[in-house]
Each structure stands twice: as structure tokens, then as C-alpha cells.
Amino acid sequence: MALLDNFRKAKETFAKSKAKIQVLDSEGKVDSSVEAMVFHYNPAEYKVSRGANYTETYSRDSAKTLVQLSDVSMGTLNFSAVFDTYMVVSPMKKDVSDAFKALENLFILSEEKPAPPKVLLQYGAMSFVGYITDLTIDYTMFTRKGVPVRANVEIEMKLLNPDDVLNKSVSDTVAKAKEEALKVVSDASNPRG
After folding, report:
1. What is the four-CA torsion angle of 31, 115, 124, 46, rounded to 10 degrees?
2. Which residues constitute the domain of residue 100?
3. Does residue 82 have a pLDDT over 70?
4. Cα distance between residue 193 and residue 7, in whole Å
5. For all residues of the chain together, what is the average pLDDT?
6. What span, in angstroms and rounded, lies between the C-alpha atoms of 50 and 76?
7. Among the four residues 37, 58, 66, 160, which has the most C-beta atoms within 10 Å?
8. Which residues contact 87 (CB under 8 A, 6 or more apart)?
């Protein structure tokens, strides 16, 4: 019975944990001037694609083709998330696009901000660092007055090596969050806990 209770506790802990995207400043710290975007519902899955480029050269001396690694890509991350303000108990249904306006603002560049900002995506034991390269919004539900109240948001990120980007304090925070998430899973599988 203790094992079942531990699994319930782990499930509740992860259910309370929300995926979030935070903007990083030029030093790799979380930019406190930009509000974190917390997901209404956690993504059901993440798809990570990584790649490598090779060069082939033919050697006449050995009559063989030599293959050599020339470049490795950190890859891309694709996921989708549902945003929903319809289920909020309120006579005034809030426009769902307000929930991901911060993501749309990442695509606005200026002389002061000539490049897209780096972002940190965190959920439980998983974290990713990179640039958001594509954002697709599919509005799926509206009020009678035409206010969008539900949307599916698809996000693509170009991944970067976290060790090259994150400030030590942020890196430590990410490592601690991962450690805590893994401890919950470990405790859940321990029937004595």
C-alpha cells in the first residue's frame, strides 16, 4: 500500500509542477524584467532532433572513402501546449492570446535587441536552452462574442549547449530542480517511504 501512496504523491507533485519558459539575459541569468511564461497544461511530449555532418574523402592510396565528423548540431526541440481560459470560472472569459503574448514578443527585434533572446524551458527534471525559431498558434475555441479562449501553440527551439549559455547560479538552480524531480520519482518507487 505504501508503494501506491508514494506513486500518488509523485503524481500530485508533477501535476502541480508547470512547464515554463524564461528569458535569459546576455550573462545567462534569468531576466527578471521579463515575466516567465507558465503553461496552462504541460506538454504531453517533447521531440528532440539532433544531427551531425560528415565529410567524405576518397583516398587514392588506400582506394577507400574516409568518413570524418565535421560538425555536430545541438539540435532542435519541438513540442505543443494547450492554453485554455474557457475553463476559468468567471463570467468574463479572458482572451487566451494574453497567455502567450510574451512568446510572440520574442520575435520583435530592434536596434537595441538585434537578435532573439535565449530562453530556458523547464519542466520537472527536463530543461532546454536555446532560441525559439518557430511559433504556430492554432485558435480552437471562441466565445459567442468571438473572443479566443482556447489555443494549441506549437513551438520549435534551436537548442544550445546549456554549459555555454547558463550562468552558474541558473545552472545550479536547474540542476537542483532536476535533482528534486528525480528524488520524487525515486521516493515513489521506494515502498518503505
Report:
1. 160
2. 2-189
3. yes
4. 10
5. 78
6. 7
7. 37
8. none
pTM: 0.69
Q: Is 20 exposed, middle or buried (0-12, 13-18, 19+ CB in 10 A)?
A: middle
Number of domain units in the chain: 1
Q: In the structure grid, which three cell numbers stand for residue 28, read together?
A: 545567462
* Selected residue with higher pLDDT from 88 and 63: 63
State how far the Cα of 81 lies from the Cα of 150, in Å rounded to an integer. Answer: 11
CB atoms under 10 Å from CB of 122, counted, come to 21
**66: CB partners within 8 A, 6+ apart:** 56, 57, 58, 59
pLDDT of residue 10: 47
d(CA 107, CA 116): 7
Q: Is 97 helix (H, G, I), strand (E, B) or coil?
A: helix
Give tens-digit pLDDT for 91-150: 556 888 888 888 888 888 778 778 888 999 988 878 889 999 999 999 999 989 999 999
Nine cell digits for residue 62: 588506400
Q: For the chain, how far is it from start to end, CA to CA, in angstroms?
A: 11
Task: Encode burial over 134-160: b for 16+ CB neighbours within 10 A, e otherwise.
Answer: eeebeeeeeeeeebbbbbebebbbbbb
